[in-house]
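hey so i finally got around to running the thing on that chain from the lab meeting. sorry it took forever, my laptop kept dying and i had to restart like 3 times. anyway pasting the input first so we r on the same page abt which one it is
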Amino acid sequence: MTSTPDLAAASLVEIASALRSGSQTAIGIAEWAIDNHDRRGEALHAYKTWSPDRLRGDAAAADAAFAAGINLGPLQGIPVSIKDLIGVSGYPTFAGCPRELPEKWQAEGPIVRAIRHQLGVISGKAHTVQFAFGGMGENRHWGPPRNPWDAVDHRSPAGSSSGAGVSLHEGSALLAIGTDTAGSVRMPATVTGCAGIRPTPGRWSIDGIVPLVPSLDTPGPIARSAGDLAFGFAAIDPLLGGDVSSFLGVLAGVDVSDFRIGVCDWYFQNCDPGVAERVHEALAELEKAGARVSSATLPHLDDVTALNDAGGLHIGEFSSFINNEMIDYKDDLDPSVATRLAAAENYTAAEHLRRVRDVANMAATVDAAFGPFDAIVGPTIPITPPKMADIDTPETHLVANTLFVQNTVTVSLLNQCAATIPVGLDDAGMPVGMQIVCRDGFEETALGVALAFEHVLGTPRDRLGPSPMGI
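ok and heres what got predicted. didnt touch it at all, straight out
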């Protein structure tokens, strides 16, 4: 019989194996998660809706299926937190608002259905920035979660999937599902020392998710390691069909020397102390292990950054949503959201269509310019997560948000996919991420590179140690 794994450190492969061998039970994992939340939940504030009774009920159903010899999928018995922008039947959806959204937003889309059909255990609805419009994790209505890497100061957990990475460090979830429009999976993963991936929009359905910018929105997973990220992605991904064993079997054979890696200097702009250094140190380790690394240049990075600074595609698509379907919620907008929305007052449909055309043309040019590289890398976020007290006005929030999304939003607007893995701690002791950017539709490559890098650099827990306020 397989030994009972240490849930704080074990991989999802090890935990799934223990569940199937009978050395671990879903209810045992659920009680571990509940106990962790009881001890850390008030301090870390990961969840908008936390329901231990529902968690136990899901776990009991998973155990009953195991007892009957029924295996419905790799996530059976695994606790998963869901961003409170994503519909889950029986759970309210607030989308960061002070009032619950209409019942239609509880409807489950394909991503949540894939988890449910496998008897994955829903741990709760994790906090989000209001309507996902912001990268710092701020929410004046409910308060932001706390980044578990600073036990003294309340630092940004990043957003908009602000509770996702925190739920993993709290020990109340083993996988988290967020959404990414301008970086809202990759940024929370980065600042909490986790791994995450933004799929190319369209690969994972946005049905059942409150929209921000439908042309850019995509759900995506956050996990405690690149190995767990590959496990969770394959379990849910509609193209891989839940065949985790085959996918991980393929990835097990990859080596850092199998990939041609480009390093883009543009991503190293505006870095705080220790950020660029940790990424360069990791790249040196990878080169020593056989990685083929050389300099890379991508066109239009300044152009898409300027477009995003002028409101990007957000200003048109979100303003249409809030001014029509959600007009009753407009007066309740967080000031940091309302300030950015105000710029839409004179925004025309003609300007939006022009931006859509420009983005499509730039994306095609960048795709062609990828050349021989399998992936292009740089820091995921150039700056240290700020203290929340230092970004408590709309003006200071906007300045920090602009720097936070500098490297992630280019990926979004250029229709690429990207993963992030932690590579070290900056000079303030906060996690630093390396972004692994690939062409649209090359999620398997991004995950392969991430896992090959992790084999050399070690898992986040190996490389960073446990977070001061986490498990």
